């Protein structure tokens, strides 16, 4: 019962996060594209990333919404959050010379350190969700 409740809360938080950020980016697609263009990415990658990031966030949301694909959604969420967290870690470490935030909505208002902690929180809960599902199914991770 506790595991199922925790999994429900984790899933809901991730759905809210990814649906909000994806829709925010889509609504302001040109702004998001301009912000990505200021990132230290190759110019050829900007438009593909402009489309791929919100579509990936929506795909993760869709996978999380369906019980039979929830584990895949948690893996997708963890993968996205790992990528975002690694990038934010490099920003905080001063690896890049220019680092405007290309995040959606109110997340743009966060400082980089706060954003790193935010990302670490969501990465952690996605990993906990994966662990819970494997534990409930009696899989390999439940024996750790």
Automatic annotation (TrEMBL):
Topological relation to the membrane, as annotated: Multi-pass membrane protein
Pfam families: MauE
Superkingdom classification of source: Bacteria
Key words of the record: Membrane, Transmembrane, Transmembrane helix
Localization per record: Membrane
Every Methylamine utilisation protein MauE domain range: 4-131
Residue ranges of the TM segments: 45-66, 73-96, 116-134
InterPro entries for this protein: Methylamine_util_MauE (IPR009908)
Designated name of the protein: Methylamine utilisation protein MauE domain-containing protein
Species name: Dyadobacter endophyticus
């Amino acid at each position: 019962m506790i595991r199922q409740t925790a999994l429900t809360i984790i899933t809901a938080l991730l759905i809210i996060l990814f649906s909000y950020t994806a829709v925010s980016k889509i609504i302001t697609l040109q702004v998001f594209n301009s912000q990505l263009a200021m990132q230290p990415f190759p110019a050829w990658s900007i438009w593909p990333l402009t489309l791929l990031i919100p579509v990936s966030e929506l795909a993760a949301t869709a996978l999380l919404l369906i019980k039979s694909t929830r584990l895949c959604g948690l893996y997708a969420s963890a993968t996205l959050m790992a990528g975002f967290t690694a990038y934010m870690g490099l920003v905080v470490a001063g690896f890049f010379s220019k680092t405007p935030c290309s995040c959606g909505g109110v997340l743009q208002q966060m400082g980089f350190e706060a954003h790193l902690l935010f990302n670490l929180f969501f990465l952690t809960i996605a990993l906990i969700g994966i662990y819970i599902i494997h534990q409930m199914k009696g899989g390999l991770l439940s024996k750790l």
